[in-house]
């Protein structure tokens, strides 16, 4: 007589790690179908299915939809590790952050276009309920408006960025100047290792509020297309607490004229191995004089620099050459070659760094810049670079260089 007891499906006998490995081969729709077959399947699939949550603006799966879903299914809250939000809804986002996610590790919130507006009273009342996420280690917050001005955050919005466990924070296109009015110890992310700000606006005090809690910063990016909010010479002072830990500093500054033209002193940063900076900001305009180069390099550059990316070096002239070698001014038509030349001061700086490497920056291994592949100047520098143990290399406009710490150690 055949047994009437249902046989247990072999899948449920497998270890959980193997079950998840199999389920990852399915798309989300198939995972959802399997989830609905029985309670056992739901218990297996849900921790995988809800580990990463994405929103889609303009659908019922937007931030407000996610909030409503979590209110209906509160047990899912503890399963969420990564939130990827494609909008900043000023009400729904704050209501979402009023929920404590016990296992949330990362938030990426990126908004394109104009966000909705709410009045100050509504914003303040919502911010009162925003919570610190106990295990959050990475936060990306970006609002890229159609208006070129950055999105302005108010002082009470700082609660959205107050998470003690943060190790990496990236802010883009926001004005957080109001945070300068906070208490000096408001932020307490003592383990912050990476701090990246893209095209933001701030004052000295506001930037100091973010940087001062940590002495473990390793990677800092600060980018600006316009004039800096305060003197360039103050940035080393701001970073002074991290002078021993800082390894990568990316100052992508496109504005051509420094505020004070006094340079920046990074000689007290012994472990700073990668530096991206416009030379006029680091050395001041004094680097135009050949006789001043050695003293400037000794008093401005970090002493153990290994990789230097010279930002905002603008070619001196444009020459358009046809196949017969005739040179014309202007932009090249089809079939013509574009040839650029370095400004004399930049050429002399690069040549000096190569030929005097062993005297001024003995650990320097790479000198990088944009447009090099269409410049004629570096041709005579390549043999010198090879002779002195330096790699002289171009970067393309689409390149985004992120050196790895372990790789820098091996250089």
Description:
- Helix content is 26%, strand content 19%.
- With 411 residues, it is of the alpha/beta class.
- The strands form 3 sheets. It has a 12-stranded parallel beta sheet. The protein has a 3-stranded antiparallel beta sheet with strand order 14-13-15, with no helix packed on it. A two-stranded parallel sheet has the order 5-7.
- Helix 2 runs antiparallel to helix 3 (39-49).
- The longest helix is centred in the last third of the chain and has 12 residues, at 344-355.
- Mean pLDDT is 86; it is low at 1-5.
Q: Mind sketching the topology for me?
A:
Elements: H1 16-23, H2 28-35, H3 39-49, E1 52-54, H4 63-72, E2 82-85, H5 92-97, E3 106-112, H6 120-127, E4 138-144, E5 151-152, E6 168-172, E7 174-175, E8 194-198, H7 204-211, E9 219-224, H8 235-238, E10 248-253, E11 274-277, H9 279-283, H10 293-300, E12 307-310, E13 317-321, E14 327-328, E15 337-341, H11 344-355, H12 357-360, E16 366-370, H13 381-387, E17 391-395, H14 405-410
Parallel strand pairs: 1-2, 2-3, 3-4, 4-6, 5-7, 6-8, 8-9, 9-10, 10-11, 11-12, 12-16, 16-17
Antiparallel strand pairs: 13-14, 13-15
Helix pairs in contact: 2-3
List the defining traits of the structure above.
411 residues; alpha/beta; 12-stranded parallel beta sheet; 3-stranded antiparallel beta sheet; 26% helix
Summarize the structure.
With 411 residues, the chain is an alpha/beta fold.
């Amino acid at each position: 007589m055949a047994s009437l007891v249902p046989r247990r499906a072999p899948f449920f006998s497998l270890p959980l790690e193997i079950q998840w490995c199999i389920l990852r081969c399915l798309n989300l729709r198939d995972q959802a179908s399997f989830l609905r077959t029985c309670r056992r399947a739901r218990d297996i699939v849900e921790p995988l299915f809800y580990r990463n949550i994405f929103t889609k603006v303009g659908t019922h799966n937007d931030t407000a939809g996610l909030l409503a879903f979590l209110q209906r299914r509160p047990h899912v809250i503890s399963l969420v590790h990564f939130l990827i939000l494609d909008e900043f809804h000023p009400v729904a986002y704050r209501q979402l952050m009023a929920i404590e996610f016990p296992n949330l590790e990362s938030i990426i919130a990126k908004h394109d276009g104009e966000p909705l507006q709410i009045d100050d009273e509504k914003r303040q009342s919502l911010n009162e309920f925003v919570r610190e996420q106990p295990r959050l280690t990475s936060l990306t917050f970006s609002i890229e408006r159609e208006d070129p001005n950055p999105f302005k955050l108010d002082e009470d919005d700082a609660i959205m960025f107050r998470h003690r466990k943060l190790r990496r924070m990236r802010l883009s296109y926001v004005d957080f100047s109001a945070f300068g009015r906070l208490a000096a110890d408001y932020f307490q992310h003592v383990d912050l290792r990476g701090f990246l700000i893209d095209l933001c606006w701030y004052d000295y005090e506001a930037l100091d509020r973010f940087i001062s809690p940590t002495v473990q910063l390793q990677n800092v990016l600060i980018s600006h297309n316009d004039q800096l909010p305060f003197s360039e010479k103050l940035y080393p002072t701001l970073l002074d607490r991290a002078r021993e830990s800082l390894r990568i500093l990316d100052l992508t500054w496109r504005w051509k004229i420094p505020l004070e033209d006094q340079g920046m002193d990074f000689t007290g940063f012994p472990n700073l191995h990668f530096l991206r900076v416009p030379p006029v900001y680091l050395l001041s305009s004094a680097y135009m004089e050949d006789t001043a180069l050695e003293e400037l390099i000794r008093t401005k550059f970090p002493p153990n620099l290994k990789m230097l990316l010279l930002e905002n070096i603008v070619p001196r002239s444009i020459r358009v050459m046809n196949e017969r070698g005739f040179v014309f001014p202007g932009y090249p038509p089809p079939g013509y070659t574009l040839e650029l030349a370095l400004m004399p001061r930049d050429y002399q700086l690069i040549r000096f760094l190569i030929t005097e490497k062993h005297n001024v920056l003995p650990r320097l291994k790479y000198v990088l810049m944009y447009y090099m592949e269409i410049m004629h100047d570096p041709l005579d520098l390549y043999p010198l670079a090879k002779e002195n143990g330096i790699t002289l290399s171009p970067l393309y406009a689409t390149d985004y260089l992120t050196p790895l710490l372990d790789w820098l150690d091996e250089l």
